[in-house]
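Our consortium's second objective concerns turning raw sequence data into structural hypotheses that experimental partners can test. To show how far this objective has progressed, the report includes one record in full. It was chosen at random from the queue rather than selected for favorable results. The single chain below, 679 residues long, was entered without modification.
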Amino acid sequence: MTWETLAASQIINTLGWTLAYSIWQIGLVAVVLFVLLRLVNPSAANFRYAVSVIALLISLALPVVTFVQLTGADKSVYASSTISSYDHANRSRDSDQIGDRSDIAATDRVQRGQAVRSTTALYSAVREFLGANLGAAMPFAVLLWFLGVAIFSCRLAGGLWQLRSYRQEGIEPLGVDWTSRFSLLCQSLKIGRRVELLRSTIVKTPIAIGIFRPFIIVPASAFLQISPSELETIIAHELIHIRRYDPLVNMVQSVVEALFFYHPCIWWISAKIRLEREFSADNAVIEAFGDSHIVYANALANLEEIRHLANKQMPRIATAANGGNLMQRIQRILKIKTEMKRANSAWSAGLAFVLISAVLTMVFSFNSTSLVNAQSKTGNRKVAIGFVSIPPLDRSENSPKDSASTAKILVEVLRAHKIPAIGFLNGSQVSDGEKMYPVRAEIAKMWRDEGFEIGVGGYQHIWFYDTPFDDYVANTEKNINIANKIVGDQGQSLHYFSYPYLNTGKSSEDRDRFESWLQGRGLTSVKYTVDNNEWMYSYVYDLARNDNDVNLMKETRMAFLDYMSKMFDHYETYSKVMFGRDIAQTMVLTPSRLVADSGHDLFGMIENRGYTFVSMSDAQSDPAYQTAEDFAGKSGISWFERWRMKQGQPLLDEPKVEPAVQKIWETKKIVKDIKKKVS
């Protein structure tokens, strides 16, 4: 088909005129929508969303109707011109035979004048006028339109393909806790369809995809860097999108944007739909969760920071939790409640908005390298961190230099997060009881000089259960003497003792007797509420470092962070069940290379759960630590479990260590024990 034939094609011309008319038609729809949105209260998000969607559908329907009408009009014009030609020929023959018929000519002129004054004639006259000026450009305009539609269709197809990859690649199984949470959330929001929640290492912000088989995909980092209560509101937001079939609307939007890519009003209408859709979903979340506006607003801010630092945009076809104008959304979320609260509540919400606004200003103004330093802190939880033992244990082939390096990294991380940690000295690492080991002693002094408190454990890290009372006391006293040489240089004193392995002896009598001995030396034992098997992950991480197994190191870090997040869920549940509130927590860690290397992520996760880092004395001043307990046995367990057992209540199921980590640790431990026996 030649260009001349194509240019003369009636369909091409009709399509060209349809596109031309769509400019003013869609523009008129946009003007009407603009007026309506100005008249409707901004709080009526559902109505504003519905009106915007209707405006988009009308914008799609008008060009379709126009094309159909123009196609029919063209056929009528063709038929009319054929009949007119036939009549004209007959009249010409009659004129030749009869002569000049002036009365017929006059009548014809009157009829033509009436036709021009009719709507159809006016429509034809306008088209004839425009056709004389624009008609030649129509084929070129249609060609450009085809090219634009092709380009935007490819973009749409690419987005669909990317969403498909999200559903198949980088997917990780959810833990039992989140599976249960999600099921309850679906029930509370009355989700009638089956929706699947997935955890992904690829996506960087939660998204809802799928029309007939919906999915909610949440980045794995969100489970670590956002508190469970905040993440629940984000997931609820996505469930509300699915409940209202917003992914279908979003698909229609994407198609209309591809068809009318040339029209700025289409993009404006579509942007309004996306904005009002998020406002509407936000309203539904606030309504579902009650007094959760601060939590939800903070969750959106944290989520946007995660996405910003990842520097990754979601496809437009995806319904993402941080869509729309984020600052407007947060302002509305807080304003919704401030209008319903009294002045003091309004002041609190306003202050929260100022804090979150400051966070987002930092996010969009600077390329921060540390997630946690830019997080807003709206929680009032407290946690103290205790490290056993100082200096770090040497599992590398380059000790003790590697131990010094680990200590320096850890100190930098603690200073960055303003954590007033306490390190419990392992005397056997720094002295034989008489002389100091210079390098390791300097590590302990560096900890002291950086302003971190030093406490004591045993000279040897031994079990109280397996050690006679007098030997256990002597082991501790030897460690106190060594520790005093380190802290005494700066005029400091010792205040806290940490039971090795959290084991407090064979009987409550032995423990009470030892506690009295500690008090006589001005020491208080630490009661750890957040116990964990971090040391097991650290052991595997050190093995991977020695083997230079980068992949295993990375996998161990991710598994460790996920595990620690679950442990906080676990012990926070204990706190709520036993005390009806968030008590000040105390967490035990080893100063391992794993903790040092993943410190920013670990402590960032803790901060994002609403915790403030406090000293051990501050944490243990919480009245909860006066709760009675009398546990005695071979194991070492959390004080939550001790208090629970004293009350005769069953213990909660504790999160399990990653099976692969458990297997590596057990295998290596067996080999190590055999070597000891052989030697």
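The partners drew two points from this record. The first strand starts at residue 171 and ends at 172. Confidence is low (pLDDT under 50) at residues 75-113, 338-378. Both points have been shared with the crystallography group to help prioritize constructs.
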